[in-house]
C-alpha cells in the first residue's frame, strides 16, 4: 500500500500514478501513467490500485515492478513522490 501525506478535506486532489516494469539492466519494458481524482465530501486517504500489464511481448526473466504516486501541485513533504518496488519473475 502507498500512503500519500495529505489531510482530509473537501478539496479535490489529483494524484499522478506511474507504473513501470524494468529489466535488471534498467530498461523499461512497460510504462503506464494516469491521474486519479480524489475529492469532495467523501475524500479518501487510501486507495486500492489495480492495473493489468500485458506480458505477451515481455521476455521471460526477472523485473522490478515500480509504482510511483505524487500529489499534483503539492508542496513541501507532500511534493515528494511515494515509490514502492517489488521483484517479479515473468515465465514463458
Explain this structure to me?
This protein is mainly beta and 92 residues long. The protein has a single domain (13-90), classed as Immunoglobulin-like (Sandwich), CATH 2.60.40. Helix content is 0%, strand content 46%. It has a 4-stranded antiparallel sheet with strand order 2-1-3-4, with no helix packed on it. The radius of gyration is 15 Å and the shape is elongated.
- The Cα radius of gyration reads 15 Å
Q: Low-confidence segments, ≥5 residues, pLDDT <50? A: none
CATH architecture: Sandwich
Number of strands: 4
Secondary-structure element string: EEEE
CATH domain class name? Mainly Beta
How many domain modules?
1
Category from helices, strands and their pairing:
mainly beta
- The best one-word shape is elongated
Strand content: over 45%
CATH topology: Immunoglobulin-like
Task: Work out the helicity level.
Answer: under 10%
Largest sheet: 4 strands, antiparallel
Q: What integer is the average pLDDT?
A: 84
Record the strand order, biggest sheet: 2-1-3-4
Distance between the termini: 29 Å
Amino acid at each position: 500500500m502507498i500512503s500519500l501525506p495529505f489531510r482530509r478535506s473537501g478539496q479535490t486532489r489529483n494524484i499522478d500514478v506511474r507504473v513501470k516494469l524494468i529489466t535488471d539492466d534498467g530498461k523499461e519494458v512497460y510504462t503506464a501513467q494516469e491521474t486519479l481524482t480524489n475529492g469532495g465530501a467523501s475524500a479518501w486517504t487510501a486507495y486500492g490500485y489495480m492495473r493489468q500489464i500485458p506480458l505477451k511481448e515481455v521476455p521471460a526473466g526477472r523485473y522490478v515492478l515500480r509504482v510511483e504516486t505524487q500529489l499534483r501541485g503539492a508542496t513541501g513533504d507532500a511534493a515528494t513522490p511515494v515509490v514502492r518496488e517489488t521483484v517479479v519473475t515473468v515465465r514463458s
